[in-house]
Amino acid sequence: MSPVLFELLLRSIWETVLMTGASGLISLVFGLPLGLALVATDRGGIAESLWVNRILGAVVNGFRSVPFIILLVALIPVTRLIVGTSIGTWAAIVPLSIAATPYYARIAEVSLREVDHGLIEAARAMGGNRWTIIREVLVPEALPGIVAGFTVTLVTLVGASAMAGAIGAGGLGDLAIRYGYQRFETSVMVAVVIVLIVLVCGIQWIGDRLVARLDHRG
Amino acid sequence: MNQHVTAGLADPVRVEPTGREDVVRLVDLKRRFGATAALDGVSLTVKKGEILGIIGRSGAGKSTLIRCLNGLERQDSGEVFIEGREIGRLRERELQPLRRRIGMVFQHFNLLSAKTVEDNVALPLKIEGRPRAERMARAAELLQLVGLSEKAKAYPASLSGGQKQRVGIARALAARPALLLSDEATSALDPETTRSILALLKDINSRLGLTILLITHEMEVIRSIADRVAVIDAGRIVEEGAVWQVFADPKSEITRSLLGGIRPQLPPEIASRLVPGEGAETILRIDVAGEAAHRPLLSELGASVHGAFRLVHGGIDHVQQQPVGTLFVAVPGADAAHLAAVIAFLKNRGARVEVLGHVAGPV
After folding, report:
1. Does the beta carbon of B160 lie under 8 angstroms from any beta carbon of chain A?
2. ipTM (interface pTM)
3. Portion of chain B with pLDDT greater than 70, in percent
4. How far apart are CA A30 and CA A61, in angstroms?
5. Which of A30 and B272 is assigned the larger pLDDT?
6. Hey, which of A214, B71, B281, B285 has its CA 20 to 30 A from A45?
7. A48 contact B CB<8A
8. Are B124 and A127 within 8 A, CB to CB?
C-alpha cells in the first residue's frame, strides 16, 4: 500500500471513529431519556400517559422503519439547518444520530422495562418521587443492559457510517468502495476489513468489560 | 438473637406528642378491582407500640389493605388515618413526606442490586436529602442492630435470604418511622430464618416501641410475635382480638381453618372411624384457655365423675404466655347420662366441649 493510500486509510479511520462516536453519544443523550419516557408513560408506568406513549411509540417506529440510505438523503434540509452544510463528516452525523436515537431508545426501553416493579414500589414506599425512582432505581438497575445496548448501537453505527460516503462523509466504508472495489485495490479492501473487525471487536470488548463491572445481580 | 441487638439505636423513634394512641385508624375502607371487592368495608385500629397481625388466605385483600396505609394503593371510599391524619385523599406529592414516617418490609426484599448493602439501608435518608456522612453513620448503626455490620460493602446478590430481609428491615427503619409495615416479610424464608427475622422484629418492637402492622398467611407468624390478630376474608375483617383469645376460641370457620396447621387436630386415623349415634367410646374435643387451662382439669374430672377416660391426643400450648389447650378425650361406654355429666362438669370448669362422634372399638 502506498504512503498516500495509507494516509487515506488513517483519515478514514478517524472519520469513522468520529461519526460513530459523535452520533453514538448523541443517541445516548437523547435515546436514553426517550427510552425512559416510553417506559414511564406506558400502562402502569411511573408517569402513565397512554396517548403520549402512543405518539412517542409511533414517532420511534416511523424513524426506525425508514431505510438509513433514504433517511440520509431525506434529512438533507435538516442537516443543512443544523451544521450549515449537507456534505462531509459532520453533515453525516446528523442523520446517523437521528437514526440511532430511536434505535437506542428501543434497546434502553427493553432494559428499563425489566427492572423489577417491586423495586419501584419500594422506592415509592420510602417517599421517593419520580425523579428519585429514575435516578436511584430505574437507571442504576438497568445500567448493565443500558451499557450493553449502547455497545450494540455503536457497532451498528460503525456499519451505518459506511453508507455516509454517499453524502461525502468519507469513512472506512467509503474508502473500501472507492478504492478497494471501484479501483481494484485489494490491499485497501483487506486493510479496511481488518480495521473494521478490530474496531468492532474493540468496542464489544470494552462494552462487555464495562457490563461485567456494573452488573451486581449475581 | 440478642447478640445482634446489643448496640441499640442512638436515639429512639420520634413520636409526635399528638396524644393520640392510634397510629393507624381505618374506617370502612373499600376498594374494588373490577367486579371483585378487594376491601369490603374494613375498619381497624393499630395502637401505638403494638404488633397487629392481619392474616388471610391469598386473595383475601391483605396486600391491598397494607398498601392503602402508605398510599401505594388508593381506596374507593372510607378513610385511612395515620397518626390522626387522613391520607387517602392526599396527592402523590403530599404523600411523599408522609411515607417517610412509615417503613415497609417486603416479601421479596426489594433491595437494589446495583447498590451496596449500606447504600440500600441509607436510601430512605438520601431521598430525605440528608448529608452523606449522616446517612453512612445511620446505616452503620442499623446494620449493627440487625447484625450485618460486616456486609456493609457487599452487594445484595451475595447475601442469603435471611440476610437480605435483615437489610430490608434496617432500610425500613432508616428514616425513624412511626409505623412499620411488613408485607409477608418471612414468606420467602425457611422456618429457621423466619424465626430469627420474627425475633428481630419483636425485639425492635419492644426496644424502640415501634408500632408494627404485618400481614401474613401463616398463623405461626401471628403466634410468634403479634399482640392482636385480625382475620381477613373476602375483603372483610371476620374476627379480631388478642392472639391467645383468638387461638383459644376461634369464632369463624376461616380462622379455624387457618389455625388448623398449628393447633392440635384429631389424628386422621381416628377421625376416619368416627360415626354418629352410638359406639364403644365417645370422642370429645375439649378446648381450654386462660384460667381453665391452669386447673388440673383431667384429674378433677376423674375424681368427680366416676369412670375411666383416656387422653387420645392434644396438649397445652402457650400463646402470648397464656395457656391454650385442645384435648381429645375418649369416654368409654354408651351411657348418655354419664356423658352428659362429663360434659356438664367440663363446661362448669370453663372448658368448651364438643362431641365429635363415636368409635366402635378402642382407638
Report:
1. no
2. 0.89
3. 94
4. 16
5. A30
6. A214
7. no
8. yes
Residue-range domain boundaries for chain A: 3-214
B185 with B245, same domain: the answer is yes
CB contact under 8 A, A141 and B128: no
C-alpha cell at B76: 374507593
pLDDT of residue B298: 83
Among A126, A132, A139, which would you mutate to test the B interface (most chain B Cβ atoms within 10 Å of its Cβ)? A126
**Contact yes or no for A127 and B128 at CB 8 A:** yes
pLDDT given at position A113: 96
Please state the rounded mean pLDDT for residues A143-153: 97
Q: What is the pLDDT of residues A85-99, one digit of tens each?
A: 888 899 999 999 999
CATH number, domain with residue B335: 3.30.70.260
| 8 Å CB contact of B96 and A218 | no
pTM here is 0.87
Same domain, B155 and B276: no
Q: Does B352 touch chain A (CB under 8 A)?
A: no
Separation in Å, CA B90 to CA A47, B85, B213 = 17, 10, 21
| CATH homologous superfamily of A3-214 | MetI-like (1.10.3720.10)
Q: Does the CB of B104 have a partner CB in chain A at under 8 Å?
A: yes
- Interchain CB contact of A117 with B (< 8 Å): no
Instruction: State the distance between the two ends of chain B, measured CA to CA, in whole angstroms.
Output: 43
Q: What type of residue sits at position B243?
A: V
Worst-scoring range by mean pLDDT, A189-198, B97-106, B279-288?
B279-288
Q: Which of B223, B241, B259 is where one domain is finished?
A: B259
Q: How confident is the model at residue A128 (pLDDT cuts 50, 70, 90)?
A: very high
Helices (H), B129-272: 132-145, 161-173, 191-208, 219-225, 243-248, 253-259, 268-271
B74 shares contact with chain A (CB less than 8 Å): no
**Cβ–Cβ < 8 Å for B179, B102:** yes
Predicted confidence (pLDDT) at residue B4 exceeds the cutoff of 50: no
Q: In total, how many domains does chain B have?
A: 2
Residues B69 and B216 in one domain: yes
- The average confidence (pLDDT) of chain B is 89
Which residue on chain A is closest to B67 by alpha carbon? A125
Buried b (16+ CB within 10 A) or exposed e, B106-133: bbbbbbbbbbbbbbbbbbbbbbbebeee
Q: Which of A154, A149, A171, A151 is nearest to A162 (CA)?
A: A171
Range(s) of the domain holding residue B353: 268-359
A218/B158 Cβ within 8 A: yes
Per residue in B148-178, pLDDT (tens digit) is 999 999 999 999 999 999 999 999 999 999 9
**Are B292 and B159 in the same domain?**
no
Is residue B231 located within the same domain as residue B300? no
Partners of B157 on chain A (C-beta within 8 Å) are 216-218
Inspect the interface and report whether the beta carbons of B123 and A121 lie closer than 8 Å. Answer: no
Per-residue pLDDT at B274: 86
Q: Which residues of B touch A112 (CB under 8 A)?
A: none
Q: Which residue in the set B96, B112, B158 is minimally distant from A127, CB to CB? A: B96
B247 and B283 part of one domain: no
Burial class (CB in 10 A: 0-12, 13-18, 19+), B191: exposed
